Amino acid sequence: MINPERKAKIKWQCRRGMLELDLILNNFIANGLELLSEDQLDCFENLLTATDPQLYSWLMRHEQPEDLRLGELLEFIQMHDKFQSL
Predict the structure, then answer these.
(1) Which CATH superfamily is domain 4-79 in?
(2) Quick one: pLDDT band at residue 85, thresholds 50, 70, 90?
(3) Dihedrals φ, ψ of 74, to 5°?
(4) Structure pTM?
(5) pLDDT tens, 14-23?
(6) pLDDT for 4
(7) CA distance 77 to 28
């Protein structure tokens, strides 16, 4: 179980300037965040430091991050994206 303070901080960081990112990230928080290991949580927090355009490009599979751990995490997020087929 994730520390409630850490989860609240992550939820706040998922508030983005793009509706598409808000939908994907908040859906992931609701359905996949608790499945992450401690290392994956650290990676997710690192992912959230990316700019909105970069994050959008990665999540839409237009580009791949250089960091393989980020790439694996993005795949995990995409698997939990119920809006992906819309």
Answers:
(1) Flavinator of succinate dehydrogenase (1.10.150.250)
(2) very low
(3) -60, -40
(4) 0.88
(5) 999 999 999 9
(6) 93
(7) 6
Tokens representing 66 are 């250089």
The 3-class SS string of the chain reads: CCCHHHHHHHHHHCCCCCHHHHHHHHHHHHHCHHHCCHHHHHHHHHHCCCCHHHHHHHHCCCCCCCCHHHHHHHHHHHHCCCCCCC
For residue 69, the one-letter residue type is R
Cα–Cα distances in Å, from 67 out to 45, 63, 64, 85?
14, 12, 9, 26
Tens digits of per-residue pLDDT, 57-80? 999 999 999 999 999 999 999 988
Q: Give pLDDT, residue 82.
A: 64
Domain boundaries, the chain: 4-79
CA triple 52-8-22, angle to 5 deg: 30
